[in-house]
Amino acid sequence: MESTYLTLLSTVVFLPALGALVLAFFPREKTEAMKYFALGVTALVFLLTLIMALPSAGDWQFDAAVTDMQKVFSVGWIPSFNINYFMGLDGISFPLVLLTTFVTMLSMAASWPIEKHVKAYCILFLILETGVLGVFLALDFFLFYVFWEVMLLPMYFLIGVWGGPRREYAAIKFFLYTLLGGVFMLIAILMLYFSSDLKMLSKDQLVAAHVISPELSEGEQAARFAEIQAHTTPRRTFNILALQQLGQHTDAFNGDVLGKPLQWWAFLLLLIGFVIKVPSVPLHTWLPDAHVEAPTPISMILAGILLKLGGYGIIRICYPICPQAGYELAYFVCALGVVSMVYGAFAALAQKDFKRLVAYSSVSHMGYVVLGIGVWSAVAGNEFNADAWKMGMNGAMFQMVAHGIASPGMFFMVGVIYERVHHRNLDQFGGLFAKMPLYSGLAIGIFFAGLGLPGLCGFIGEVFVTLSVWSFNHTLAIITASVVVLTAAYILWTLQRVYLGPEYKGPHGDHLHPMTTRELAIALPLFVLAIAMGVYPQMVFHYMTPSVNQTVDDLAGWAQRNAANLPQMAAFDPTAPAPVAPALVQAEIQ
Amino acid sequence: MESAVLPVFLFVVAATGLAVGLLVLSALVGPSKNGKVKEMPYESGMDPIHDTHRRFDVRFYLVAIAFLVFDVELLFLYPWAVASRNPLGIDRAVSEGLVESRGLVFAEVLVFLALLAASFVYAWRKGVFRWR
Amino acid sequence: MTSETAYLLLPEIILILAGTLIYLGGAFAPGKSAWAALAALVILAAGGALAQQGTTETVQKALVTGTISGPLTIDWFSAAIRYGVLAVGLVFALVGSRWVGEGDQSEFQGSLLMILAGLMLVALSNDLVLVFVGLELISIPTYVMLYLGKGTNLLESGTKYFFLSLLSSALMLYGFSFLYGVAGSTSLIDIRETFANPDADAARLMSFARLALILIFAGLAFRLTAVPFHFYAPDVYQGTSNANAGILAVIPKIAALAAIVRIIYAGMPGLEQIGWQLTLAVALVTMTLGNLLALWQTNVRRMMAYSSIAHAGYMLIGLSVGFAAAGGAVVAEGLDGVGATLFYLLVYAAATAGVFAALTYLSGERRIVSTLDDLAGLSSSHPKTSAALALFMFSLAGLPPLAGFWGKFTLFTGALSVDARNPESGNLWPWFVALALVGVINAAISGAYYLRLIGVMYFRSGDAAPEGQGGAGAALATALCALAVIGIGAYPGPLVEAGKKASRAARDVSPEMLAGDRVPANQTAVVKPLPGLQKAEF
Q: Are A316 and A240 in contact (CB under 8 A)?
């Protein structure tokens, strides 16, 4: 079985890289063929992952009912550091993988206007996809880090070579922020590695972490376990699942470092690395610059996928490995989320550049994700009822997917208009509805999805997060809810300035011809999905909820075991009734 | 403080003290008379004939360096020459196992001379000896 | 000196003889460019001689246990450094193959061969005197070399280097003399024995040993370009030619590290505490200063000078861990700070030599590539060279999966492997975590200026493309370095292991070494009055 999964997941991850290799042999002048080939590769990868989502895919099928990792395989890579080529999927990563392959395919289709160095563009684009998919699938911390950095290089060149006038500045800024986050992450990884010891885990835990393959017979497992226990020196590991077990069930990461447990520092370093990517205020300043300078398809990928890596890292790594630190830093994480939401929304209100506005809206919307995840630990005091945590977590995950649909749509819509009139000044638009009715209709729909209008995808995540925050801290919940009003303000004002009004008076007015078929083929799926996910959110929850709930339950179990040692949260009131979610929501998260 | 360091410390203190002390002493005690005559380059009263900041031709330096190099290097042959015929020299070193054989020492001297010859040829080809 | 010693020195003898011949030959036929090819062949021949020796029984045994032959130590450490030096030398021989500027190519190549021989002697030597001779055999041809080639200000940079190098040699010699005073011998293995089991005299003089350590470290820190002995590097690199700057950036560092490992790390057991504290402090300051100052540079060679200072700081991380581990701090098994440093040295040398090879290749008769602006738009005029330069920059910045990443990874892993929970090393642990943390922050800072260079090549358009007349040799050298950077990145394991093995070989004393062909301490150390030698004899 493992070899099947090895083939399957390796194909998903490395097919784009293979495509890039083939592209290198294309003759320079065949630019059209290169674009079609790259689009074909991304479409193939999307199909592959889509097949996994189907119920009748046999061995390939992603089983939504399974809460643990599935499709897991592990082979040795660098034995002297115990580094494995170790990958797997669960309900947290699978929706994001699907999102990645889908948005990448659409972005490649949006890359047709690229005329400069087409070959290099396509190659870098495909390598970028390999890097992102690798991060989502890696279960070895080192492998995770390598993919994380691999992703950096193509992005740097894609912004720097194909970007706008200040591309050099934007590219370096993007690179340095992410590199800084990456090196912090590396330190945390090594700190955890050198505190880890597989000998502290029981046999069942080792099997659950795939250190001992579950496919082995009982006897072989016992033999492997005895072999690990027989060592006199600590058995270090980069296995993320084993590190989670160590963090939740042992005191391996509780060693004292300058008055704080080691996991407190590790959590903080990892969190910095991830929130740079999310991005949260005050580490967000690279994002508006990168978005404004990047070409449209790269903006789509950046907003749609790369930002999700930060949220994914926090869910997959920060909390499960360092639960106590997460518990202690709950207010800090929640504050990061809320400040980003408020700041992003206000900053968006003040923008004159259409793309910059959308970029700040991303900062604001990703704040919900951080808040939703943060609530997870913030309500840790409420240890016997994990419903609110689950709601926050599910909300954050849903928000990531929803934002992954809405924000590429918004950036694409900005790109469409920029290509025609070559400016993005909000004050010089107006009256586009009259000239491009179809485009304007789609754009307004997608922007409403970003706004969080009920019935569209942005609504579900925001509601879930807000509700779960209520059970933690009323003040934060009120702020969160009021951000919705701010969001509505800047989006509606933008729509009014761009699409409504009497007549377009800006430059290049005669170039405002209707959308082409290709543009329509990109915008329409995003539009349809934005509606579908809003009307029938179960299509996403179906895949993610079991794993998310399992993760939350594990942590709730941890909190219950350690309740005596944990300081009570200020807002915790054991006599208060557990928060009651609306019936609709209850049904969805179960 | 360790006793071994003490003498060194005392030495350093004494040396510094002496140097500084003498300067201070001469400044304090010595007579100080300034005047036009005192400012002259030669106190004997001779007027300088021309500017003293005169440049010598760089070729003189080259010759001086070449002379120094070859002359000083030849000095290294004296110890060998003395030691080779002395019973307490190379023979004794060989018998005590410090050196493998007389022949090896001779070979080393030959290598040294060969290097010297090579550098001579090099300097000659580079025109060091030509008075251009 | 025995004939066996002479045989073991064969590669060095080949290099020196050939160097002399090339010098002489160049005096008769200055214009010929075949000297580079000859020098490259000689380096390969020396490598062949080294490999041939490796097949003999004596050397094979020596590589396992280490052995002493007169003033030489034959062990894994010396073998590893000798091969590494020859590889680096080959690259630079190729870089200098198309001659432009002052002097003759023969002088450059002859000096290079001498420098390589000196470098190999430093790694080999078991004697303070031979270490010094080796270091001078590096320095003196370097002075000559700095006046050769085409630079913007050869005279200034050559003279600056000359005087400061003299100062550092004096400092180091001063340290040597204290060391001799404490141990009563110039033989490193005897010094090591004295430090390991000090008699009453030596114990009394231990404070001088500390002074000796600091002075020797200071003298070598100049060659390593560690703060506060770094200040000459930017001026010297900027004024001299690209090839010379490359040699200065790589070779003195190898010499300094080899000498530090041989004399301080292996030769002075018992002083590990001062060792790790000194290297840790210098490492922190050196990498931070180097990286911060590099940010403002517009001259590529000046930027690379600060980059080389910063990398010297990284290298000291491994040394610091090595000292701490040798002093009893517990580190995780399978890790070796000094081994990581040696590996890092190779990785650094590959990328840095590659940068200067590429710059040499891009230069020409009219203009040598000096400023960032000279590189503007390089990606369209010289796509392959700019790709190679980008590769070197990414490797120096430490991005996976290139060689530089593994170098930094092994260093930082070493620093973090100090066991926090062990009482022996628990109190050191925060220091080393801080060291690693400052190290990675520096790695991120360094990304800024390495990327700026890439940005200039790829994102800007220039008016005048560089001539690109550095010759096929420089192009080949660039390609070799690029291959090394990729190859080590893809498969770092064997070289990391080789580094560990070399570091262990340098540190361990085997009974075979103590029993080896070495002159007993009392005969070299004490000048016995020869009773018969009186005035009357003369």
A: yes
